[in-house]
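Issue 218. Parser rejects a valid record. Input:
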Amino acid sequence: MNATNSSGGRMWLNVVLWLAQVALAAMFGFAGFMKVATPLATLAQNPDAAWIKDMGPLVRFIGVAELLGAVGVVLPALTRILPRLTPLAALGIALIMALATVFHLFRAEFPFIVPSIVLGALAVFVAWGRSKAVPIAPR
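Output the parser choked on:
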């Protein structure tokens, strides 16, 4: 019997999905807010964010996409208003992380690749879980 066939397994998976959703929302909410609210010159001073110098205003777009993903991965499921948007938001986050992985690979910024892959995989897990395994019923 797999975890989604029993009611206890579904409850456990639901809890894990909520934890993943909240973790993604917190990480992408914080990262997105920093990219939107902090002056680019200040962001570029961070030695771990040298890529920001090369991206310019695109950093703002990435920040807005991250903020939207953070809201979308939690709010529709929490309110049960259009909860089908939650797996779509998770797929959007996964896309951001796939693009970030490729970007950092081309720049040989290898320390950034593992976190991008892990966050992308977590987002894919949420997309799968909220679309197939334990979807949230709409109101």
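Fixed in the parser; the record now loads. The helical segments are 7-37, 40-44, 51-55, 58-72, 75-79, 85-106, 113-133.
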